[in-house]
Amino acid sequence: MENEEENLNVWHVPGDESSGKFGSVGIELKKGPRAYKAAYLARYGDSVTGEVKKQELRFRTYSSSPWGQGYDFDDASSSWYCENGEILRLTAFLNEHFTEPGSYRVIKDGSVTGSILSILEATGIDAAELGRALAERGDVSAVISGLASTPAGLAATEAAVIAQRRQVVAHLKRLAETPGTNETQMQSSIGGNYWLFGGKYTGMANRRDMTYLDQHDIPLICSDGSLHIVELKGPNIPRLVKRHRNHWIVGNDVHEAVGQAQNYLRALDEQGLNLQATYENELGVRYDMRRAKATVLIGHPDHVNAPLATRRSIDQAIRTYNSHLTRVEVLTYADLLESAERALTFEEGIAEDRLSVEDSGLAEESDVFDFDESPPF
Question: Taking the model in full, what pTM does it have?
Answer without folding.
Answer: 0.60
